[in-house]
Amino acid sequence: MLDFNYTISTKIFFGKNKIEKLDEALKHYGKNILFVYGGGSIKKNGLYDTITNFFTRHFIAYHELSGVQPNPRITSVRQGIKLCREHNIESIIAVGGGSVIDCAKTIATGVYHDRDPWDLFLQGDSAIKKALPIGTILTIAGTGSEMNGNAVISNQETQQKLAIHHDLLRPKFSILDPTYTFTVPKNQTAAGTVDIMSHIFEQYFSPTKDAFVQNRLAESLLKTCLYYGPLALKQPTHYEARAQMMWTSSLTLNGLLGYGKITDWATHGIEHAVSAAYDVTHGTGLAILTPYWMEYVLSRETTDKFVEYAQNVWGIKESSDLAVARKGIEKTREFFTDLGMPKTLRGVGVKENKLEDIAEKTVLYGDVGKFKKLGKTDVLTILKNAF
Ligand code: NZQ
Ligand code: ZN
């Protein structure tokens, strides 16, 4: 196990009606709030009314930033920063999924940055010095943003989707009420399940051999997705299925699985370049790319890790190690297909003549992947295979 410092500082209020804890949660963070949300799902399911009534009852002044889109844009961040400065905002409440939360996080630190917020993504994490406190009310399981310090933002002008990471961006609290995810549509439920699994893969497939506890945790979380992901898809109001997926999503990308080991993140790097160019749903892009990434990195040196995965997660028994490893990959692909995910990049509108550009953007700041390092040619091959 490698050395690490452990911080998972977000306070979690998990369960039905935990919105009632909002008062307690917000206590230390002022009475002048920026309320950030997406395209309207919270208006349809009544959450908007619940929250605004709460603000009124508790004499909390709020300003709204609505319409944050999936694959959130730097333009929304700029709007939010402007509102914070105009109204002396003291803290931010993000109600939604990864897109809304990431936008809120970037606003929270962008407000203290004296240049355009996109500059933070170009300068890197050391440019983050301060951030407003954030709280989240999660409405869709997938990214883990509710419990981590990451924010991923798209810039349509430069066709880039880049990330920042900092402990200052970790939400101070997150309210996780699984009933809020009952209305998540099937395609987003499936995409969220894949995203959670991909976060596990990115940390499980690692060059660090001595990570027994991390690996067993990862396998348990994967098995939870295999069981409860399809159940949530079939029965959207199945409380236990939604609850298990929600908590798995948070545990998967709050640092827990990655502490003490080297992690990969190549598939995410490639997917972010794809969704920057084509506005593809993040989990959908991952469902297409992951099996092709697995096939590409399977080699004599990596077979043992794929065998561990296939045996411990899928219970596969075959005559040779290579057959076990390949079967594990096949099972992964089948699982994604059964969730209703497309199998090819062509199927989500990607054009063949754009693949080279996507590969170039993926490695713009250096090679990707630590389980297996990938340069432009490797990435291009994966993209062509996935096309
Ligand atoms: O905008 P509204 O109307 O709210 O609709 C959203 C949106 O269309 C809808 N939705 C959310 N909750 C709902 C609901 N519809 C009905 N009922 C509900 N309860 O779902 C759609 C997708 O929302 P989004 O926030 O985009 O989904 P997700 O949570 O998957 O976030 C994806 C974004 O997060 C980034 C992705 O790249 C992508 O930009 N990621 C963030 C990470 C992080 N911060 O740690 C890590 C991830 O790897 C990922 O890169
Ligand atoms: Zn992801």
Description:
The chain has 387 residues and is α/β, with parallel strands linked by helices. It folds into 2 domains: 11-180, Rossmann fold, CATH 3.40.50; 185-386, Dehydroquinate synthase-like - alpha domain (Dehydroquinate synthase-like, alpha domain), CATH 1.20.1090. Helix content is 48%, strand content 11%. It is built from 15 helices and 8 strands. The strands form 2 sheets. It has a 6-stranded parallel β-sheet with strand order 1-8-5-4-2-3. A two-stranded antiparallel sheet has the order 6-7. Strand 6 (150-155) and strand 7 (160-165) form a beta hairpin. Helix 11 runs antiparallel to helix 13 (321-338). The longest helix is centred in the middle third of the chain and has 23 residues, at 212-234. It is globular and about 65 Å long. The chain starts with 10 loop residues before the first strand and ends with a helix. The mean pLDDT is 97. Bound molecules: 5,6-dihydroxy-NADP and zinc ion. Zinc ion is lined by residues 143, 195, 198-199, 268, 282.
List bound small molecules.
5,6-dihydroxy-NADP, zinc ion
Strand content: 5-15%
Give the rounded overall mean pLDDT: 97
Instruction: List low-pLDDT spans.
Output: none
Largest sheet entry: 6 strands, parallel
Instruction: Write down the CATH topology of the largest domain.
Output: Dehydroquinate synthase-like, alpha domain
- Alpha-beta classification: alpha/beta
Number of helices: 15
Q: Tell me roughly what share of residues is in helical segments.
A: 40-55%
So what's the overall shape? globular
Report the CATH architecture of the largest domain: Up-down Bundle
Terminal Cα span: 38 Å
The number of domains: 2
Our Rg estimate from Cα atoms comes to 20 Å
